[in-house]
Amino acid sequence: MHVSLYVSDMSKTTAFYTTFFAAAPVKVRHGYAKYVLNEPSLIISFVENPERVKQNFGHLGFQVETIAELNARLKQAQQSGLVTREESGANCCYATQDKFWVTDPDNVQWEVYYFHADAEFNDPHYALETAPACCMPATEEKAEHGFKNLVAAAECCTPGVSTCC
Prior knowledge:
Layout: E1 2-7, H1 10-21, E2 27-29, E3 32-37, E4 42-48, E5 60-64, H2 67-79, E6 83-92, E7 95-103, E8 109-118, H3 139-145
Parallel strand pairs: 1-4, 5-8
Antiparallel strand pairs: 2-3, 3-4, 6-7, 7-8
């Protein structure tokens, strides 16, 4: 897969992505940087053009194969100060997932997630920009996967009952 994004500041972008991907760009030119990743398999390039930076899509992300890989990537991102949110047992895109999020210098959100199973419920908080994380499993379930308790169990919602779900 190849992705190309417009960015407003190439130096901030390359600093962020070199840390997030734990890899240096394979090509850097004036106003341009390209990364070729094996894990996940992705070719992504950045073109500096502040006038064309837009947030008209949801987010980007990649799925990891194991909880151990998710936790290793989470630890690296935490140590670098990149993590903006962690979620465990989230129902997103009709799938139950554990994940964490980072946001690049132009506010592009990335999720790194582990897929547990298909789900019949899609948590609508993903459609709301200002909604807090919710519908998370109890703290004990999060702890076994290494994730923080973002929302107390009593604050979690039931589909169709609270303002979150």
